[in-house]
Structures are given as structure tokens and as C-alpha cells.
Amino acid sequence: MPVTRIMPTEESADLIELTREILGKELRPVVSELDATASFPRDVFRTLGRAGLLSLPYPEEYDGGGQSYEVYLQVLEEVASASASVGVGVSVHILSCFGLFTAGSAAQKERWLPEMLSGDLLGAYCLSEAHAGSDPAAMRTRAVLDGDEYVLNGAKAWTTHGGKADFYKVMARTGEGSRGISCFLVPADSPGLSADNPERKMGLMSSTTATMIFEEVRIPAERRLGAEGQGLPIALSGLDAGRLGIAAVATGLAQEALEVAVKYAREREAFGRSIIEHQGLAFLLADMAAAVASARATYLAAARLKDAGRAYSHEASIAKLVCTDNAMKVTTDAVQVLGGAGYTKDFPTERYMREAKVMQIFEGTNQIQRLVISRGLAH
Ligand SMILES: Cc1cc2nc3c(=O)[nH]c(=O)nc-3n(C[C@H](O)[C@H](O)[C@H](O)COP(=O)(O)OP(=O)(O)OC[C@H]3O[C@@H](n4cnc5c(N)ncnc54)[C@H](O)[C@@H]3O)c2cc1C
């Protein structure tokens, strides 16, 4: 019996098939090489963009794909099963367009959104700073109004696509406290904006992460999204949606690890039979399959709430927590199923394990998700 993958809905089946086809040709054959050389596959994002896969959850009137979040996340899971790095990249791009879509004026959306969703451009999201990760309200990067321009100074840490993106959604301080933060759309070619050397990470090697440095970067005031002081709510509501993206990415990664482990366990023999015939190992695989399926159910349930226009922040945190913790466990167990081979670079399981770890850290660490969930329970 085949390992159950995502069960496509009527709406998502063709898109998942298209994604599988594109990535089967362009990404899967090179994914280990990209990891080994820490190369960022910008051309793969262009192909995905031209196929309409970088704009799925946005309305067609802005050149988006007009799909529900439920469909978008299923496609994203498929992308991440081919490459977690590219899956994270797609999620971050979608997140970087979210502020303009939700908080931009009609004129701002008409002017910039179609270009951002055209598939040629890639976005990035700048919230974190070196001393302000879990606590973004402690940020120091400043935007000071000077005539009809803001002047930005500071540094935004950990930017996924830092130095590679075409535009940056940036949160910067225009006043004091958590209500003194505003949101800006900053073009990559703005004078004074530069990327520091990429971080040397343990995983997600083909996703570039760098600190973005702002030195007297002048941005027309019309590039501020929402009112002054609304930046943190804009950022945090984007993160609710972004957390669902990471949940889907983690599930795609775990699904792939499960499939590699099951295939190996069917073929590898010990004590005269395939290792999957040993109950001690088979039960490990059963728990992995249950972890993947139950994780998927949490992100789909939260996405359906979002699509129905209902509050979903609590469920998004549950999905992010469950999917990423399950992905860490499933990928770790996949290494175990492969034994010594799983610990080598001859098989992808060690990469999956390295990639899973960061999912518990970014878009709000899993401690922060527990904080959000428990606060919801207290009221
Ligand atoms: C590969 C990568 C890509 C990233 N991409 C982006 C990006 O594109 N844009 C962006 O803005 N940021 C990005 N980040 C940053 C990421 O969101 C932060 O790393 C994360 O929010 C944690 O912040 P921190 O690293 O400063 O950890 P800290 O906030 O210093 O936390 C350290 C530890 O303390 C725990 N902790 C902190 N506060 C509490 C609390 N109140 N209760 C319990 N435990 C707590 C944390 O859970 C963690 O375990 C990325 C990070 C990585 C590693």
C-alpha cells in the first residue's frame, strides 16, 4: 500500500499536479547539490512565478491566483516536499505581499500589487532584529519623516531572501512602544540599503538568510502601509497567515521523510527479513505516518477558518506548533529508520532533520506559539 500523501481537493488537484511536474523537472534533481553548495535557486522561483504559483491566495483582480488558503497551503506542502528551502521561500514571498493586500489603500494596491504578484519579483519580510526576535516590539530600526519621505536607519536581522529579494516589507520605529512601529514597502534598489554576508546555517542551505542594513534609506511617504503606528498589528496578522505557511512546509518535509523511510524499511533486510517486518521498527513508522496525517489536519482546519473569514489566530499557532514539532520528530526518526545510512549524506534524511529544526524557531518560536495558545485559553 502506498504511503498516503495529501488528498487533493477538486480545486487543488490540478495545481498540485502542475507543481509536482515543474519541480520534478527543475528542482528535485538538483536539490542535494543546492544544499551542498548553499546555492539560492532564483530561476526556480521565476518558473513557479510564471506558472502562477507565487500568487495563489490573492484575488485575480490584482493578478493573483484567486485560490483559497486551503488550496494554496496544499500546493505549498507539495513544493516543500521537493525542497523545504523553496517552500519557505514561497511562504515568505506570500507573507511579504500580505501587508500591502490587507493594509494598503486601493491606490497602493493597484499600483504595486500586480507587479509583486506577477511572478517576476520576489519579496522579503523584515521584522526581526539582532536583539528583538521573539519580542519584535523591542526593535530599534527607525523611520523618520523628512518632508514627504521617510529616512530609515538600522538593521533587520535574519531576512529570508536578504540581498536576493526585489522588495522588502519592513517594520520600523516611527514612535515609542509597540504602537510606535510602522510598515513600509522598500524597493531593493533603494540607495543606502545593503545586505550583510549571508548567515552560515545548519540547514535550509538553499534559502539565503542575511541582515539587511539601512543607512539613510529614503522612502517616499506613500510607501508606508496603513497609518503610522499600525506596523506591529500588520506584521502580526501577517504572521498568523505565515505560520500556516510554515505548518504546510513542515508537513511537506515530514511527508517526504516518511516516504524515504518507508521505502528503505521495505528494502533493507536484517535477521532474514525486511526491517519493516520487525514490529519495533514498524511501530516507529506507524507513529511517523500518524504524526504527518494529524499535523496536516491542523493546518487544513485553520485554513478553512481563515477562508470562512473567521478568527484563526489560535488555530494557526496550534498548527505551527504541531506541524513543526511533528516534522522534527518524524525527520529524526527517519534517520533512525535508515540506521548508519541515515546519518550520511548519501541519503537525504540528515538534510531533512537539519531543515526541520528551524521550523520550530522562525515565524515565532514554538515557545511563543505555546504562549499565544495558552493566552487564548485564559480568556
Ligand atoms: C533561517 C531563519 C530565517 C528567518 N527568516 C526571518 C525573516 O524572513 N524575517 C524575520 O523578520 N525574521 C526571520 N527570522 C528570525 C526568527 O523569526 C527569529 O529567530 C525568532 O523569532 C526567534 O528570535 P531570536 O532568534 O531572537 O530568539 P530569542 O527571542 O532570543 O529567543 C531565544 C529563546 O528564548 C525563548 N523565549 C523568548 N521569549 C520567551 C518567552 N516569553 N517565553 C518563553 N520562551 C521565550 C525562545 O523561544 C528561544 O528558545 C529567521 C530566523 C532564521 C533562523
From TrEMBL:
- Acyl-CoA dehydrogenase/oxidase N-terminal domain: which residues? 9-120
Question: For this protein, what is the EC number?
Answer: 1.3.99.-
Molecular function (GO) terms for this protein are:
acyl-CoA dehydrogenase activity; flavin adenine dinucleotide binding
Instruction: Return the Gene3D superfamilies for the record.
Output: Acyl-CoA dehydrogenase/oxidase, N-terminal domain (1.10.540.10), Butyryl-CoA Dehydrogenase, subunit A, domain 2 (2.40.110.10), Butyryl-CoA Dehydrogenase, subunit A, domain 3 (1.20.140.10)
SUPFAM superfamilies linked to this entry? Acyl-CoA dehydrogenase C-terminal domain-like (SSF47203), Acyl-CoA dehydrogenase NM domain-like (SSF56645)
| Cofactor(s), names only, from the UniProt record | FAD
InterPro entries, alphabetized: Acyl-CoA_DH_CS, Acyl-CoA_Oxase/DH_mid-dom, Acyl-CoA_Oxase/DH_mid-dom_sf, AcylCo_DH-like_C, AcylCo_DH/oxidase_C, AcylCoA_DH/ox_N, AcylCoA_DH/ox_N_sf, AcylCoA_DH/oxidase_NM_dom_sf
Domain called Acyl-CoA dehydrogenase/oxidase C-terminal: residue spans: 229-377
Return the PROSITE patterns for the record: ACYL_COA_DH_1, ACYL_COA_DH_2
**Segments forming domain Acyl-CoA oxidase/dehydrogenase middle:** 124-217
Which keywords fit this entry according to its UniProt record?
A: FAD, Flavoprotein, Oxidoreductase
Q: Where does this protein have coiled-coil stretches?
A: none
Protein family according to the UniProt entry: Belongs to the acyl-CoA dehydrogenase family.
Write down what this protein is called: Acyl-CoA dehydrogenase
Biological source species: Microbacterium oxydans
